[in-house]
Amino acid sequence: MRKIQYLFLLFILLLSSCIATKPVSRVPKPEHHLNDSVQRQFLYYYYDALKQKDNKQYDQALETLLLCEAIDSLDAGVQSELGILYSIIGLNDDARRHLANAVRLQPRNWWFSMQLVSFYTQLNDSDNAIKVANQIQTYYPDKQDIYSVLSSLYKQTKQYEKAIGAFDKLESLGGINPDVTFEKVNLYWLLKRPKDAEVEFDKLIKKYPQEAFYRIRRGDFYLQQNMPDKAFEVYQEVLKTDPQNPFLYISLSEYYNSVNQPAKAMESIVSALKNDQLDVDTKMKVLGKYVEKMVRDSTKLAETESLFKLLVDRYPLEEQVHGYYAVYLQFRNRTAEAISEVETMLTINPKNNQTWLQLIQLTLAEQNFKQLVVVTDRAIEKVPKLAVWYFYKGIAQYQLTDYQAALTTYKTGLPFITPDQPTMKSDFYAQIADIYFKTEKKDSAFANYENSLAANPKNIMVMNNYAYYLSLEKAELKKAERMSAKTVELEPKNSTYLDTYAWILYQEGNYSLAKFYIERAIDNLTKDVDPGVVLEHYGDILWMSGRDDKKDDAKALDMWQRSYDSGNKTEELKQKIKNKGWERK
Fold this sequence. Notes:
Mean pLDDT: 89
CATH topology of the domain at 1-175: Serine Threonine Protein Phosphatase 5, Tetratricopeptide repeat
CATH superfamily of the domain at 1-175: Tetratricopeptide repeat domain
Radius of gyration: 36 Å
Oligomer: single chain
Number of helices: 32
Strand content: under 5%
Structural class: mainly alpha
Shape: extended
């Protein structure tokens, strides 16, 4: 069924294509006399210009049409073609003048007028577009297309009463049309005239008494008007005559949500999804809207899974069905089964970037890094030249301690980063920098941290890592302090950033301030942060603070022991505990 709201757009696009590429197919017929020789010359130039324009030889076409105009400036076709050509090359004032000339010369020519309407519409000059449309309407009062154009122009300019008038005329010429009815209903709604909207529904339902869909839409209108009781009354009437109508259950779901009965709303949606009369595209839209509520409802897990399995069995080649089921399985922590569904999606459509990314992230969540290398290689093969595949492959290789391979992967992927991906570029350089630092190539590491921050100066993780590694080398400590201070300013409760800042202050000999920030880091430790290094740093800072307060010495030993017990069993820490600190200078 055509959508009336799209009719004008499609019509304008058609005209736009005419303006952009196609000549008006006609033989010029001048209303004044040209002798045969001049007429032949004129026609030769005219058709040559059209050919040049079709071949996008716009400069040549313009010169040739100007020759035509020099021969016969009163030919409307030449004026129209000049207007079209000037529009193509962006000379709008000239385009307007020539298109208007064509209409002035042949005011009854439908296409010349519509070209000018289209041109004004492209310029958002609705007033002039309406003026031209009304002028041509006087010559074609029974042509339905003009009322479609006028109704859309009036809607755009919020002249809703006139838009309704145009729709009324369209209806009088073509009869009651559901799309026109719905347009008028929406306009009456905007005008706050619900009674008139009801009259439109009455006329539509009277013409199509067997069509339950229109009665359902009337109920939807009541629901939109915040009249749920009247809406429910309509739905109940439809339920008696057409209990299998799937759209009824979709509307009932909206009703139950509006009256705060979520359980019944979900029951209605499940009924719609199970209904064979509902097309698969609509089911996917409905499922997409409700899938999050469904997977989170722990009271109906069996029913939800049964529904997903039913849909998978019924639509085995529908990507979205498998995708939604994968989301459900992932939410239930059944990652292996979710991966299987995603693999099925890739069998259906191996070129879907988002599906590959979903598979990569599921594999990463499993921390199966060997498999992650395999998956990213498959993604590179099927959808090549995407930097994101190389990013994840590099992560997998880094975790497998294959640092050289990871470095090669990141350098291979760098050229595929597009100019609109500065964050990705920053992350690539950060990974490269981490690899160089891991492999003791510290100058290269610091150079690539600089590259990373040049690409994205707000990369807070890079600022932290770069500052921390500088502090370990006791290099450029003031620069490290500035970067670290920025991270603490942006995330004042991040224990990792607080620890880095405290450690830099420690390296600078500012033990009292270092103690303040390391204690903030301890206070903000979360379960997902390994406390080992933070506790060791706290012990070191306390030890150096112990020159002034001996109580800190005992506390430092306690922190070192707690760090060791947490799993931070380095030889250096072991010696600190064994020797009960070190000699302070």
